[in-house]
Specification:
Blueprint: E1 4-8, H1 11-22, E2 28-31, H2 36-40, E3 45-49, H3 57-71, E4 76-80, H4 89-101, E5 110-114, E6 123-126, E7 129-132, E8 135-136, H5 155-160, E9 167-170, H6 172-176, H7 180-185, E10 191-194, H8 199-216, E11 219-224, H9 227-235, E12 248-252, H10 257-269, E13 272-277, H11 279-283, H12 287-303, E14 309-314, H13 318-322, H14 326-346, E15 353-357, H15 359-368, E16 373-381, E17 384-390, E18 398-402, H16 411-426, E19 438-439
Parallel strand pairs: 1-3, 1-4, 2-3, 4-11, 5-10, 5-11, 9-10, 12-14, 12-15, 13-14, 15-18
Antiparallel strand pairs: 2-19, 6-7, 7-8, 16-17, 17-18
Helix pairs in contact: 3-4, 8-9, 12-14, 14-15
């Protein structure tokens, strides 16, 4: 499940906060409330955009409660606030705090770490007052905001309009004088409001809060416009999950000497797991040989991980394939394809990328896998094409296909390099099955 849930009140702020987590290497998606549960299984950070800034406070609070209930448990809940504290600040803060409070043991301290500063955007908090480019909010153009006119910049007063939860203020002198941990842990007020002038102040606050968590178990709900929540997640050592990515799978049907040199060049660049096929035995239907091949291939697919490479290739020399009887030559591509497909279907983790060499073998493998299209992305080199599969158990999987007489001795190294880059890029994109509901740091695709 997700490591972090960010609850935001508008799309722009949701995506901006998500970007902070994405820069740390976590997989992030912005979703609408009805899709948070689904996204929580696919992403490290789920950012729920409630569009609640201008809703009645009770309705906004209910939405906050609902999404936390839907995604819980997570390592950290972040209640994303507007950088200038517009909207349902108190109602949503209290809803987030209560939702977490209701889901942890009664003896566990739960507190909201309210750090509204965003120094990189000119928003700082001094003496509990929010300043925009050095100007109190009520003296800025925000005093004339048509939907949320600001009449004060005292942060505790802004929160108190919609919540009666007690606030403990940690002034900037305590942030900078080395007593931050003690200041954060003191008292039992549900809300701890922190001053901050710089990003380093926010980082220090996050580290101190994480230390309080490790020392006495305090569960923090981060309440901020983006930076403090991301820094707290990092201080709590919430990291992106290592993707359970299977190895690259290469099915080399071409028996040319050039192909063999290309495979040898790849083997010199790093470990390769080979499954050596006796073409005559496999094409001839030898059950013992096929069973041994399937056992070896299945074992490699179960234990190898990206970016490792598993190569299925015909053993011996090109002459061994050339000398096969005509019927055996015709049966060999389908036999290879059936072997590969059975192993893929039984693997606990699908191969993360597919490389095929030889036209007949490529066609047979794609057909056996049930891929109904090869979405062409471009050429690695002339006559070596990269793209992705559509349909079947490897739907969306990056793939490269190449003829047996294409390129020079290092061409396969280039092809596999392209394939590995495509696999890495894929881990940063949205799965096709949720793309209509997930907004990956951007807007929903047009209908």
């Amino acid at each position: 499940m997700a490591q972090v849930l960010v609850v935001a009140d508008d799309l722009t702020g949701a995506n901006a906060t998500g970007a902070r987590f994405a820069r740390s290497g976590m997989r992030v998606a912005t979703v609408t409330p009805e899709h948070v549960t689904r996204a929580a299984g696919d992403y490290d950070v789920v950012v729920a955009n409630l569009d609640s800034r201008h809703l009645p406070p009770a309705q906004a609070a209910d939405l906050v409660t609902d999404v936390i209930e839907a995604v819980w448990p997570v390592g950290l809940v972040v209640k994303r606030t507007d950088t200038t504290l517009r909207g349902n600040i108190g109602a949503e803060l209290e809803a987030a705090w209560r939702a977490v409070r209701d889901r942890v043991p009664a003896t566990t301290p739960v507190r909201a770490l309210f750090a509204p500063a965003f120094p990189a955007s000119g928003r700082v908090t001094v003496d509990g007052v929010q300043l925009l480019d050095g100007v109190p909010l009520e003296r800025s153009e925000l005093a004339f905001d048509p939907l949320s006119p600001m009449s004060t910049s005292v942060v505790a007063d802004i929160a108190a309009r919609q919540t009666s939860l007690a606030v403990r203020h940690v002034p900037i002198r305590q942030v900078t004088q080395g007593v931050l941990g003690t200041a954060l842990a003191a008292g039992d007020e549900p809300i701890v409001l922190c001053d901050a002038l710089t990003e380093q102040h926010l980082a220090d606050i996050a580290e101190a809060a994480a230390e309080v968590h490790r020392r006495d178990g305090t569960v923090w709900v981060a309440v901020d416009p983006g930076p403090a929540g991301a820094l707290l997640a990092d201080a709590l050592r919430l990291r992106g999950r290592a993707a359970a990515a299977g190895p690259l799978l290469a099915v080399v049907g071409s028996a040319t000497e050039l192909t063999r040199r290309q495979v040898d060049a790849v083997a010199r660049t790093g470990p390769v797991r080979f499954v050596e096929v006796d073409a005559a035995l496999l094409a001839g239907g030898d059950p013992g040989h096929r069973a041994a091949l399937l056992r070896d291939l299945a074992g490699h697919l179960a234990t190898a991980v990206f970016p490792e490479l598993v190569v299925v290739r015909t053993a011996g020399s090109a002459r061994d394939v050339v000398d096969l009887p005509p019927d055996a030559k015709r049966r060999l591509p389908a036999a290879l394809a059936a072997l590969v497909t059975e192993a893929v279907h039984g693997a606990p983790t699908a191969p993360s990328g597919l490389y095929t060499s030889g036209g007949d073998v490529t066609s047979a493998v794609l057909d056996a896998l049930g891929a109904h299209a090869f979405e062409v992305g471009g050429e690695v080199v002339p006559l070596a094409v990269h793209g992705q599969l559509t349909g079947g158990p490897l739907d969306g999987t990056p793939a490269v296909t190449k003829g047996g007489l294409v390129g020079d001795d290092t061409t396969l190294v280039e092809c596999l390099g392209k394939l590995r880059r495509a696999v890495r890029a894929r881990t940063r994109t949205v799965p096709a099955e949720v793309s209509e509901h997930v907004l990956p740091l951007g807007l929903r695709p047009p209908r």
